[in-house]
């Protein structure tokens, strides 16, 4: 009797593209049969190889749609921010000031702070971009998006936020906002992107998070003290836009060159 590790050359193999299958896995239908069998097309479109093509298509379509956006800043913040609230008005101001400074405004295209920043971009006569995401519940693009691209996959969409923007402005938000913020922070920390200012608005909101980064992550040696400089925190739309635009124009990373600590308003 041969050992399980002994090479078996007598077992026939079936090839499916670059994949080789033996024994029970070799049984079944051929690729041609699958292709020509129209009984269950829905099964086919939910297979992983088909998904890869859809993912690829999202990147191709996204790159194509956004290629001519020009200088841009991505703005993040809660989908639940209410029109008329202070955060909403700050979002409108951010969008307007960015547009007036010649920057396209890229958001997630949804409600709340995204709606606010897109509205500001339109008011400032700039390019208002929304990168929508397909969600289990119906959620259209907000009315202020002039160039909209809809994504099925969060990760493809997140690539676009970074690839087509030169900086981020982040309003208060929940998990989605934190996800987008921390992804950008990691990209800067690991030098995957350079010269990428990230400015958070709202010292009262972000202060406790920044304190935790410092008192726990830095204190425990999980990030270095200089990693705190990846973000800066301000209180107004004017400060945020001036900081991001200034850093982009000077080619500096998003560090606070004034020497003030993250979590404090720049002088
Ligand atoms: C939950 C609600 C709406 C969901 N619609 C969204 N549309 C587009 N983009 C969204 C949506 N929800 C989250 N995002 C992305 O995450 C960030 C906001 O998430 P948060 O958890 O609300 O902070 C935002 O920047 C988007 O990119 C309400 O009806």
From TrEMBL:
UniProt-listed Enzyme Commission number(s): 3.2.2.n1
Print the keywords alphabetically: Cytokinin biosynthesis, Hydrolase
* Descriptive protein name: Cytokinin riboside 5'-monophosphate phosphoribohydrolase
Q: Which family does it belong to?
A: Belongs to the LOG family.
Against NCBIfam families, the record matches this protein to: Rossman fold protein, TIGR00730 family
Give the residue ranges for region: Disordered: 1-42
Comp. bias (Basic and acidic residues) = 1-13
State the species of origin: Arthrobacter russicus
Task: Give the reaction(s) catalysed.
Answer: N(6)-(dimethylallyl)adenosine 5'-phosphate + H2O = N(6)-dimethylallyladenine + D-ribose 5-phosphate; 9-ribosyl-trans-zeatin 5'-phosphate + H2O = trans-zeatin + D-ribose 5-phosphate
Q: Does the keyword field hold Transferase? A: no
Has keyword Transferase? no
């Amino acid at each position: 009797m041969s050992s399980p590790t002994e090479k078996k050359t007598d077992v026939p193999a079936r090839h499916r593209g670059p994949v080789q299958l033996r024994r029970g896995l070799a049984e079944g239908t051929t690729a041609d049969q699958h292709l020509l069998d129209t009984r269950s097309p829905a099964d086919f479109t939910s297979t992983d190889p088909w998904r890869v093509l859809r993912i690829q298509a999202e990147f191709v379509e996204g790159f194509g749609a956004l290629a001519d956006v020009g200088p841009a800043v991505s703005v993040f913040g809660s989908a639940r921010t209410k029109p008329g609230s202070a955060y909403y008005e700050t979002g409108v101001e951010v969008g307007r000031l960015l547009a007036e400074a010649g920057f396209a405004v890229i958001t997630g295209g949804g409600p709340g702070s995204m709606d606010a920043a897109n509205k500001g971009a339109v008011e400032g006569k700039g390019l208002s971009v929304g990168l929508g995401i397909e969600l289990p519940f119906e959620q259209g693009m907000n009315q202020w998006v002039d160039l909209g691209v809809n994504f099925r996959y969060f990760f493809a969409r997140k690539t676009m936020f970074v690839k087509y923007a030169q900086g981020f402005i982040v309003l208060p938000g929940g998990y989605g906002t934190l996800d987008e913020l921390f992804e950008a922070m990691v990209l800067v920390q690991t030098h995957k992107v350079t010269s990428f200012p990230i400015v958070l608005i709202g010292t009262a909101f972000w202060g406790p998070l920044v304190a935790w980064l410092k008192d726990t992550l830095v204190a425990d040696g999980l990030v270095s003290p200089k990693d705190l400089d990846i973000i800066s925190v301000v209180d107004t739309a004017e400060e945020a836009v001036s900081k991001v635009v200034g850093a982009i124009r000077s080619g500096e990373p998003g560090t606070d060159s004034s020497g003030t600590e993250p979590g404090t308003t720049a002088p």
